[in-house]
Amino acid sequence: MKIPLPPNEEQRLTALRQYGVLDSPSEQAFDDLTLLAAQICQTPISLVSLVDEARQWFKAKLGFDQPETSRETSFCTYTILTGSAGLEVPDAREDPRFAANPLVTEGEQIQFYAGMPLINPEGHALGALCVMDRKPRVLSPDQWAAMAALGRQTMAQLEICKQALQLSKEVAKRELAEARLSEECRNLAQQQAEAQRLLVVAAKSRLALLSVLEDERRAGKHLRESEERFRQLAEHIDEVFWITDPTLQERIYVSPAYEKIWGRSCVDLVRTSQEWQEAIHPEDREQVEQAVASLKRSGAFDVCFRIRRTDGTERWIHDRGFAVRNNDGAVYRVAGLAEDTTDQRVLEEQIRSAQKMESLGQLAGGIAHDFNNILGGLTGFLYLAKLEAGEQPVLMDYLENIASCSQRAVDLVKQILAFSRQDKPEKEPVRLNLVLLEALKLLRASVPANIRIQTELTEVPMVQANATAVHQVIMNLGTNAWQAMADQNGLLKCELTAGKADAELLIRHPELRPGNYVRLSISDTGCGMDRATLERIFEPFFTTKEVGQGTGLGLAVVHGIMKTHEGAIAVESEPGVGTTFHLYFPELPSQPLPAPVQAAPIARGRGQHILLVDDEAAIACVGKLMLERLGYLVTSQTNPLEALATVQRDPTAFDLVITDLTMPGLNGEKLGRELLQLRPDLPILIATGFSVVMTPRRALEAGFRGLLAKPTSMQTLAETVRLALAPVGGE
Ligand code: ADP
Ligand code: MG
Question: Which of 74, 284, 350, 394 has its CA 20 to 30 A from that of 152?
């Protein structure tokens, strides 16, 4: 049989579940209500039945064993359809709805049923409070009224259950919330602790940071101070301090000395790498590039080169660079120091050339000495030959030719001796104007007519000089000048000016003393000289002229003479334009000119006996013949020891001894001293071609009567011998 359902069965079932009483344990309150219902209605059975989807379950049961029965067999299923009225079945066996119900027909044998629906506040009938009996009967109106009241009480009890359920749910919810809350609190506390810890860390970090900042501030101060020190150093040293990147393309720093030395701006240098390249002399660029390239291999370079300043002047630079490495050993900077070595070089060059001159001078002087002796013989015999030739014109002509040739040889030897400074010319106050005019007169004769000679003379102070030597200087410079202009209509200009040596001159010529100078300048409009030539012109035997044209001695002599005059030479020359030589002579404080010496007539002897000593047989022979021509009696000796023995034998036999200075065995000076030992009043002359050691003063100090220069002219010989024979202290 189909079970009848209330119209809102779904909602009713949902509502029932909200009470949470199905299958819950029995409770006293419900048991009491079934007891009251059974007693009031006088029935053996009373139940609180809750009707769910498939069954009716008993929350309380009195007189009934089963906990539940199926919905099909349930009386209460019909009770819940009655609204609030309730259901009474006086005899189930008579009621078609229950007649076949197993509860009626079998086991329990139920015949009577009365039930009041349990209606909740929303109007759903959840079940019923019922009473049953095993015999047919009916309830009185009072019993029904009591059943209705008990039904309401049962419903109220169910409401309490529902509320208790909701309460416990609330409590559970709250407990959960509380648990969550306390969890949150724990988390919060943890976070707070963490925050606290972080605060401490932050405070510590801040302290550390402050100390780092302080360190940095101190380091910064230190850095600034060291930078300042570096700047002061870099900006005040004469050298140029520079820093570049390793490619050397970009200059990072260059100290201000750069502007002074290079004559270019630091800013330009840092801006363009071109600037650096450009300044290097083109001939030196490759060398500089190679040196810089070597930095990669060796970590350093060291190079000397020339630069061109923007004003056209050149300077010598000594530049050194060093690789600066970082912690990994890689080159990240190149630093260097460049210095101007121009002045140093000039000085070194002067020392070098002075040394070269010195040794060449000694060599040349040695050769000249031997050569001089040969010339002495030659000129002597020539003189004698001319006397013998008498009226033979052809022979005379030959002899004259030999004489002019030998004169040239004498001149040459003079040049060599002058250059080698082995003869120290005697100096006296000289007017350079006069010497210059005299020399130019002589020069004019040899200079081609198409060359003009122009002089610009001002009245200049006198200088302490040897007129012959200065004459020689002018001749040598003048000759070079016209030779340089041989193939053109040139101009040879001579100029004399006076002035004070300025700082630049003194730097260029350290040999000069500060003070006033007379400057003699000789310039030409000739071929000029290139650098390589200019560097060598003062070297003896350096010439660019053809064989026979130049000896290469002219300027070496000029140099030597200027040195003995404590003066200096400066040269300016440009190829194709011309050359100027400036000679600086130290000025002499003004002095009256000495009276000119009158040439004396040849003095002749009166048969006085002269001992002539010379290891060179030819010279001894010529000297003997010349002296005899002058009217003296001559004994000649070539061995100084024999000469000494001769005088020893008879110290009074001779009126005069003339001895050569340089001789093997016993030199002239020693021989002279020995002789003076034998006879202190014996007049002695020392003959010498050149001598560094023997000067006229030294000869006089040694007790000799003087020096006789070789080769000598008849005139000089006669005069020197006359003076030597004259009584001491008067003539
Ligand atoms: P020399 O004249 O015998 O060659 P010097 O010592 O006088 O020897 O000169 C050396 C060299 O210097 C000359 O060969 C020449 O090359 C050069 N020289 C000297 N003076 C001048 C000048 N005025 N102009 C050009 N070159 C000169
Ligand atoms: Mg010359």
Answer: 74
